[in-house]
Amino acid sequence: MNIKPKKISPRIVVLLLILVVVVPFLPLLISWHWDWWEAWVYAITTILGFALSRLLAARTHPDIIAERANFHQHENTKPWDKRLTLLGFLGGGLVPLVAGLDALYDWSPPYSLPLKIVSLIAILAGYALGSYAFIENSFFSAEVRIQADRGHRVVSSGPYRWIRHPGYAGSLLTTLVIPLFLDSGWAFLPSVFSVVLLVIRTKLEDKALTDELEGYSDYTRRVRFRLLPGVW
Predict the structure, then answer these.
(1) Pseudo-torsion of CA 176, 181, 187, 191, nearest 10°?
(2) So what CATH class is 10-222?
(3) What does R_g of the chain's alpha carbons equal in angstroms?
(4) Partner of 10 at 20 to 30 A CA spacing, among 17, 146, 185, 186?
(5) What is the DSSP string of 14-39?
(6) How far apart are CA 107 and CA 101, in angstroms?
(7) Shortest CA distance to 138 belongs to which of 168, 160, 123?
(8) What is the pLDDT of residues 156-175, one digit of tens each?
(9) CA-wise closest residue to 16 among 69, 83, 77
């Protein structure tokens, strides 16, 4: 039986505005370097990537936006995921924050333009992979839970033919190269912290799905790798 999704609360709207609008602009807001073109590209790319992926996903799966917006309001969310999600938000916000401080106090030497171009391509590729997974998977929730209320089933099409968690793989790629694009060696500290959390969450989510979602065990035998083909 389907349960009508909860309305998006004002608290969620404020939180989304902070995460989606304020956080991407932190390098500019903190450093006050308004001629920093890399920071502008990073902010605009992040906001557009978020908006476009949601618009495209909502056309295919109209209820997915409400499902994601009402995270931590479902009773069957895994307790460990609530902690990991909060830590993930912290790590994700610290990357641009530290990059802004780095630019303000000139802690790190700049990287070369070719390296920045490669890192920008990697950022776009990470966003594209994550968006592809989001659009393809109608159960792409912001939290780890078995969505019995939404008829949860295994998704094996699109990028899920190659790896079991393409959304996380896209996030991992983007998070690792943002410090390069923003000229911040110090931003690698929260970046690596976020990646470690992402790997832990992937492992725990994969085990939960294997144990509780019908058909997922068979899927893992067909698609062997979680994040990186040929490695893990």
Answers:
(1) -20
(2) mainly alpha
(3) 18
(4) 146
(5) HHHHIIIIIGGGHHHHHH--TT-HHH
(6) 8
(7) 160
(8) 999 999 999 999 999 999 99
(9) 69
Cα distances (Å, whole numbers) of residue 136 to 53, 54, 64, 116, 177: 11, 12, 11, 30, 25
18-51 in b/e burial notation, b at 16+ Cβ within 10 A?
eeeeebbbbbbbbbeeeebebbeebbebbeebbe
In total, the chain counts a number of residues equal to 232
Nearest CA among 102, 93, 95, 90 for reference residue 31: 102
Q: Tokens in use for 153?
A: 């089933």
Question: For residue 191, what are the CA distances in angstroms to 97, 162, 224?
Answer: 11, 25, 26
- pTM for the model stands at 0.90
Largest CA distance in the chain: 57
Q: How far is CA 188 from CA 125, 135, 142, 176, in A?
A: 19, 29, 24, 7
- Distance set, CA 182 to CA 15, 103, 111 (Å): 24, 9, 9
- Asked if pLDDT for residue 1 goes beyond 70, the answer is no
